[in-house]
Hints:
This protein is α/β, with parallel strands linked by helices and 222 residues long. It is 36% helix and 11% strand. The protein has eight helices and six strands; from the N terminus they run H-H-E-H-E-H-H-E-E-H-E-H-E-H. The protein has helices at 6-16, 19-34, 48-52, 90-103, 114-117, 143-157, 168-171, 204-214, and strands spanning 39-40, 60-64, 121-125, 130-131, 162-166, 183-187. Strands 3-2-5-6 form a four-stranded parallel sheet. A two-stranded antiparallel sheet has the order 1-4. The radius of gyration is 17 Å and the shape is globular.
Amino acid sequence: MMALPNSWNQQLAHELQKPYFKELMDRVNSAYDINPNAVFPPKEDVLKAFQLCHWEALRVVILGQDPYPTKGHANGLCFSVAPDVRPLPKSLVNIFKEINLDLGLTPPANGDLSVWAEQGILLLNSVLTVAEGMPDSHKNWGWEQFTDAVIQHISTQKEQLVFILWGSKAQKKSSYIDPSKHLILKSVHPSPLAAHRGFFGCKHFSQTNAFLRSLGEREIQW
């Protein structure tokens, strides 16, 4: 499995040494060994969110649930898909719709959000692996404990970040975030089932950029 980059490895060293994390890695590696083509994302992309957004560059955290369970879609970043995926997942289509409503920007040519990660956005799912066609199949394996710890560590060690929480599952992680130090933005999930109940019009993208501007930082190019 792809290793954490040094910046994150140093920050999370204590967590990575805990027994539950070793058990999690053994279980995940076993799943890939048994059927490497039916566990997503590809094994080398499981920790991609950390690879593309280094600790020192971190400015925004967006939380997702678990990877897309459709072959060829998941690429290790929440809500993101591989560049050649068509049609785009409906949640991602709605995210691009809200960016257009909020900022007037034309949707990008594909659904690969690596360009966001490279600007300091940690695109982190709560669970980092999934079996083909089975959403939530790796729930309660230990990923939630790990990502809870990541969020809490970020909140404790960093100042004035933006945390974007879409949907009830992501919002549960708000208990690990200090609201006196960070901007927390919440709305319903961008899925077609919920987006019309408050995701459209949430203006999280312009709010994020306004917050960054107030700190004298460069805006995100959404």
